[in-house]
Amino acid sequence: MAKIESPLTLGTKSISKLLVQYSVPAIIASVATSLYNIVDSIFIGQGVGPMAIAGLAITFPLMNLVVAFCTLIAVGGATISSIFIGQKNESRATDVVNNVMVLCLIHSILFGGLTLIFLDDILIFFGATSETIPYAREFMRIILYGTPISYVFIGLNNLMRATGYPKKAMISALLSVLVNVILAPIFIFKLGWGISGAAIATICGQFSAFIWVLFHFMSKSSFIHFKMNNRWFTPTIIQRIYAIGLSPFLMNVCACIVVVFINKSLLDYAGADGNLAVGAYGIINRTTMFFVMIVFGVTQGMQPILGFNFGANKWDRVKNTLYMGIWIGIAITVVGFAVTESFPDTISSFFTKDRTLIDMARNGFRIYFIFYPVVGCQIVIQNFFQSIGKPKLSIFLSLTRQLLFLIPFLIILPKYYGIDGVWASMCGSDLVAFVTAIVTLIIEIRILNKRFLNIKPIEQAV
């Protein structure tokens, strides 16, 4: 019989080794996913044209909503399962896996079905014009038909990592990307399917990963796996999943709202070149998300370490994980700042040969990334609170960067500085959100220090 891997070393192994063990596979998976998004956009830009890039950019807010309803379950389930394992309650962790599977199917059918019915109205609300809506509609229809596959894959993949299998979670992400990258150029260039070919390739890649994660949780050799006798729909577990998953859910909803504001501002202040300005933001968005996804890879690797040790009352290990994660996050976004400020034209030329679009993107890169080095710190702190089961603080911090500060900037600055004010709004909100995150962390660390002062770790208490 195959040896069952145990995540119990999360409470004993050195933090630096655990971060390498859990974060490196998550980073590789995140980089692969980001590269897929970038390569996909490059294929669409080079194979279909600049209007297709703008049409794809219009789908970003809707894609954020698709992800939002999935991460509501995936992140909440992953966090709770880690805490249960830290408390040595494997049966409850199994209940979580079963419940996540059911919720993923319910969410995908409800959200995907309703969105398909009102797709054109949604895209127009998000800023689609007569030139861009055919591309946006064609792409999103196929993506929405595949939401059951996408949701189960993403939901179970997060649980795979949280229950002690970071390398297998990495493999599933890489499998999805590899199939996608192989099929996309065939469908777009060889078969001439255009932007729909990119969407079909995406679903094919996710289907291959869906099969992989399903087999993992059906196997009795997995530390936590499906059990028919355990609970599949438990109101108390569902409530906790939603409570913790609400933070990343709101983060993605905020991203959706913000992209709508950004697209509309660009259309209003760029005049006749409004569609190209939206395309420029699409290029910048893909680029910034590459580095943000690497930071997310770090936080995904931190999550089971933080959740387990918080559940086991090992506060010093929790703090060490947090501080290491902050410095790694900052280092990643510093690199992002250096690359984008130094080579904006080179980056843009991968996506398009249109000189107007490249010029617009260059200007956006220069302003957008001014305070980008502090973004990594803010993301790590926000995800720290989510990982230790403090969703209200995580929600607050996710709202600050993407809604509470950015929307007022977007309303005020473009009136005085035009399209430059749109880019400046984003970098300004990054700075203010960073300061807010630091102040919140200092206050909460002092509170938690007092709480854990006289609490013994779980194994000592037993």
From TrEMBL:
Task: Specify where it is mainly localized.
Answer: membrane
Q: Which molecular function terms from Gene Ontology are attached?
A: antiporter activity; xenobiotic transmembrane transporter activity
GO terms for CC? Answer: plasma membrane
Per UniProt, subcellular location reads as: Cell membrane
Name the UniProt key words of this record, in alphabetical order. Antibiotic resistance, Cell membrane, Membrane, Transmembrane, Transmembrane helix, Transport
Output the superkingdom of the source species.
Answer: Bacteria
User: What's any GO biological process attached to this entry?
Assistant: response to antibiotic
Does this entry carry the keyword Transmembrane?
A: yes
User: Which chain regions cross the lipid bilayer?
Assistant: 20-39, 51-84, 96-119, 139-159, 171-189, 195-219, 240-262, 322-343, 363-381, 393-417, 423-443
Under the heading CDD domains, the entry gives: MATE_MepA_like
Do you know which InterPro entries this protein is assigned to?
Answer: MATE_fam (IPR002528), MATE_MepA-like (IPR045070), MATE_MepA_subfamily (IPR051327), MdtK-like (IPR048279)
A Pfam short name = MatE
Q: Which family does it belong to?
A: Belongs to the multi antimicrobial extrusion (MATE) (TC 2.A.66.1) family. MepA subfamily.
Q: What is the name listed in the Swiss-Prot or TrEMBL entry for this protein? A: Multidrug export protein MepA
